[in-house]
Design goal:
By secondary structure, the protein is an alpha+beta fold. The chain has a single domain, classed as Peptide Methionine Sulfoxide Reductase, Chain A (2-Layer Sandwich). It is 28% helix and 15% strand. A six-stranded mixed β-sheet has the order 7-6-1-3-2-8, with helices on one face. α5 links the parallel β6 and β7. α2 packs across α4.
Amino acid sequence: MYLAAVLGAASLLITACTGLLAGATPGANIPAPAVDEPAGTPGVHETALLAGGCFWGVQGVFEHVRGVSRAVSGYAGGAEPTAHYDVVSTGTTGHAESVQITYDPSQITYGQLLRIYFSVVQDPTQLNKQGPDVGTQYRSAIFPQNETQKQIAKAYITQLDDAKVFNAPIVTRIENATEFFPAEAHHQDFLNSNPTNPYIAINDMPKLDNLKRQYPDLYREQPVLALADGA
């Protein structure tokens, strides 16, 4: 049953990241990565690129993470020379809804970002489905920006699988870095601007609650917004 039918009003049909409504599941408590990057020099930023379902929620979570200076919704992983929502949403371009995260490794490491990614942002045991959204454009994927990030991601997946942290193997793909295309302005900061939107309230606000509960030392109340930077 689609969202409009569930809500009983066509006016509530969401124009992006739509699908079948699903109950939110609590975040899993998982161990910290055994392999991680060293703390960096304050003020010297690095970039992470992650895909984990609808970018509204992924961006919304990381905007509340201490040490993140910017999180931008967009598209990555496809071979086309450009990307925009109307074509990516067909699932035919190879792109995934992704979030580009700029962070200060003196405050938060790449491994800590992945810990939040695996435990709060998405279910890593589902490849092309997250919550209500189905398709390769919603796949679970990591796009390492350098060899260090690639090794950290591979080691962490092995660590979590060996420890049987989840009730099924992790299927998150580690893909080659590709060009990132920022999404349209109306997709940026969507969670922050629309906290009572039915999709956000059901699928994504519980993720923020889990972030605050599980990682109080990494949670910040005031989000850093992409549009404030002109995304």
